[in-house]
Design brief:
Aspartate Aminotransferase, domain 1, 7-stranded mixed sheet, 2 domains, Aspartate Aminotransferase, domain 2, 12 strands, 3-stranded antiparallel sheet, 385 residues, alpha/beta, binds pyridoxal-5'-phosphate
Length: 385
Amino acid sequence: MKVNQIGALRRDHFPVFERKTYLNSCSQGALASEVRAAYELYLDQLEEFGSLWETWVGIQEDVRDQLAQVFTTQPDQVAITTSASAAVNAIASCFDFRKGPRKVLTTSLEFPTIGHIWHAQERNGAEVVHIAADPDNRLPAERIAAAIDGNTAIVSVTHGCYRNGAVNDIKAIVKAAHDQGVPVLIDAYQTSGAVPIDFEELGADFMVGGVLKYMLSSPGVGFALVNNQTVSEFVPTTTGWFAARDIHSMEIDKFDPAKDARRFEAGTPTVPSLYAAQAGLKLLLEVGVENAWAVSSQLHEQLRAGVSELGGICATPDGPGEHGAMLAVVSTDERALVNAMAQDDVVVSGRDGNVRVSPHFYNNSDDIEAALASMSKNRILLATS
Ligand SMILES: Cc1ncc(COP(=O)(O)O)c(C=O)c1O
């Protein structure tokens, strides 16, 4: 299938395309001119004025509003953190596993940070259970549902898998967990900004991610979306003054967390990254996640068809709702293939034996042809069926 030039929305905002075929948004989004300018503005203002707290806090609130728009939710359900890990740690710190249910149900598809954080809670009495996906990387929601019992404290599941691009059926998982009164945490890092996500519709209690991939921004800004119907039940002990009900009160003699999602924040935000996030999210919202997905899903299919013509194998499930933008192609030596493609100016990344090719709205069908041409040239590094 040859996709016409439907891709390439706002491509001229991304100078990298003058030199390279950039297809690595699952790792880091391409740098937009306005994101570069935002970093520069931060430095200019820092030099001229020193700390501009009011401006900085204003930008943080802007970013909160923008994230709420991306996920079709309200700003008071958005906490801004310094990473997805910081968000998950704050959430994990709410549980008293010695008094309540002990079991954390998670999956074999998680990013390592999720496993690390929950296993660190074993010292506080948690029992961590990893539910395995099938060899084709699919994880039926019923398998998770069957593992939930009266001793389950939380279900912690990724939306999109960073290694193979498989996407889980979150709605079904949330329903199964909520039927038994168990809260759900979604790691949506790999799908945020790539695939339309409506936080209200998903119904999860928590959703975490960060802005550096398909959200076009920078390391240093993560988020926790927290459902305001359940937020009062969760009080983090990993905290700081930005989580206080009144950050200006400067009180030292009590812990009085914000009533809303902000209670999952901690200390001084990563201000330069907020400037970048504001610019990146503005561009993403102008394009629209629906439009981004319309482009990348077509390019994903073009790529999948091309890999199959080369006799290659895709690790990413192919059904509707079973994948996001990224396609993981199985390699005999993923590092060698990533490096060989870099020689052809095609920027991709590798994980777990797969080369990850991840289009976004700024890519077009020529980019996919370039990636396929490079794979064809390096066919010896493709695993074949
Ligand atoms: C699915 C997923 N979760 C979590 C992370 C890590 O996020 P952070 O470094 O912000 O904690 C990543 C980073 O690549 C990821 O892909």
